[in-house]
Design brief:
globular, mainly alpha, 0% strand, 269 residues, 11 helices
């Protein structure tokens, strides 16, 4: 057990609890830059880490709040899971023929971080619009199955899942922040609570499949995984309690700015 990794898990967990930003956008760059892990190992370990830590959250959303739209989860997964598997096979193919995959993973990670930074700002705007447009009648405010694209809603949701499948498998980033923004855009009448619950429920099979694939490819560090879990669980609990006391309007733009700088470094290196 490495206590430096555990401390990192604690700090990232606190930030996740405060901001709601997915751990991958914070953890993966930290593992690469601070601890010197190869991008593939950082991504693979973080994917399994995410699958484990998100499970308890879905249990709460499904059983306590009833805030998971399982049909939407199925549509997203219909696009994301096959593309995640296809991406893993592509990585394995390039490894078998001796081609380096680090550059592709690093570039994708940078793009995913830049998109996450933009989504941090855009998500606040979208959520504000959703809350302002929410009707008073509970019957009217129930989830509208047609969504923004009406008869094309299912194909649009599956396509969104496919994009997330590739991004998350290559970078471990996107299942949280980008998934939330995508759902807010696709289903503007869905409540914020259901957006979060549905995105979380979709993230578990996606990160689990992608993480298991990276494990088969040898891209998982078990000591690192255990150390991160040891620190992140109390970290998320602490952050969740601190979130009400720290002004989000200052923290979120600061975090977005940091992610932009890190994303640019990954893209340009």
């Amino acid at each position: 057990m490495n206590y430096g990794y555990t401390l990192s898990g604690l700090l990232v967990g606190i930030l996740v609890g405060i901001t709601g930003v997915g751990g991958g956008s914070l953890m993966t760059p930290l593992l690469v830059f601070l601890f010197g892990f190869k991008p593939a190992v950082a991504v693979g370990t973080d994917l399994l880490f995410a699958a484990i830590t998100k499970t308890s959250g879905v249990w709460v959303h499904h059983n306590k709040h009833g805030s998971v739209e399982w049909k939407t989860v199925a549509w997203l997964a219909a696009g994301s899971l096959p593309l995640a598997v296809a991406t893993l096979f592509a990585i394995k193919h390039f490894m078998d023929v001796g081609k380096e995959t680090t550059g592709a993973i690093t570039f994708t990670l940078g793009i995913a971080l830049l998109l996450t930074a933009v989504s941090l700002i855009y998500r606040s705007i979208l959520m504000r619009k959703v809350e302002e447009a929410k009707p008073m009648d509970d019957k009217i405010s129930n989830f509208d199955n047609t969504g923004r694209f009406k008869k094309w809603q299912i194909p649009a949701t599956i396509l969104t899942g496919a994009v997330l499948g590739v991004l998350v498998t290559l970078s471990s980033v996107g299942a949280g922040a980008l998934g939330t923004v995508a759902l807010l855009f696709l289903f503007p009448k869905m409540s914020t609570l259901k957006i979060v619950g549905t995105d979380l429920a979709h993230a578990i099979p996606l990160t689990a499949v992608a993480g298991f694939g990276h494990w088969l490819l040898g891209n998982v560090d078990y000591v690192l995984l255990g150390s991160l879990l040891l620190g992140s669980v109390p970290g998320i609990w602490i952050g969740s309690h601190l979130s009400a006391k720290i002004p989000e309007r200052y923290l979120r733009p600061t975090l977005a700015s940091i992610l932009i700088l890190i994303g640019l470094k990954f893209v340009l290196q």
